[in-house]
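Assess the record.
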Amino acid sequence: MTLKATRGPATKMWQRLIQPPIRCLNRVFFEPEELHRAEIDGPDVNKLHRVVLKSSDKRAIHIREILKINGAELKKEFRVGVVGGNMGHARLSLPEFGNHFEDEIEHRNESQDLVLDLDIQEPVQSSLEHPSSISLLLAAPRPKRMRHLLSILAQLGVREVAVTNACRVEKAFLNGGILTRSSAIRELLLEGLSQQAYDTDLPEISICSRLKPFVEDELGPHCDRFSHKLLLHPPFDESVESLATLKLENNCEARDVLLAIGPEGGWVDFELKLFQEAGFKCVHMGPRILRTDVAVVAAISLVRAALSR
């Protein structure tokens, strides 16, 4: 019996399963080294940069299939940004824009690599009413949970994330999985940054294999990097304040907040004492035990609300 290939509903469903989904991006990002000054004539000569995207690049696929921009829509613009730099708009390159990239354009094959002109003069929005930054000290969650968290951390605008061990953290969580692949970490952070479309800075991710010396040496009472150091832990007595009602002073210049979030089982007594001796204030979000990814989103939201009170 000979099996014939079909293109019915079952085949289309199988294609959706084996092909990675194309995520909708609010802003398409480029690395600084991807940009080249566009040699063009006209009033925009000092503003435009040019980028060539391979047809297989996820960003090129997004531009074609999600934004529906093709060669017939040269004037249609979309939002772009440079990692760690400015934001702006881009459009498909107009043929009359000069010949600096003639070689790239002439050698494009039938798959149609995209040539883009970028106007990236727009500075990152920084006019918040009470500008502040939040950093995390995070007990390493399960690798699958950590992978999911990276995109979320970029969307939430977290400045720094120190992933550490703890008594209730398995060694494999810190020494395996996504945390050992820096390129994969950056890709997931960029994905989150592209989805939130607000700024261009990626969170800085660091790995701290030993909690005690890190807290004592880097975060002790002598540390003046943070105006507030908060330790998230389930309530163990009435003296622990709820993060939902916490008021944080916002009249000082340095309003950076460090938030320590432990394993899903909480910090042990030794770790609680270590943090308290380093000047951390213990806070809670109620008696429920939350998954790490849920706790991170809830805690950061509550801290931002506390800073704006």
Observations:
- The mean pLDDT is 78.
- The chain has nine helices and 13 strands.
- The longest helix spans residues 292-307.
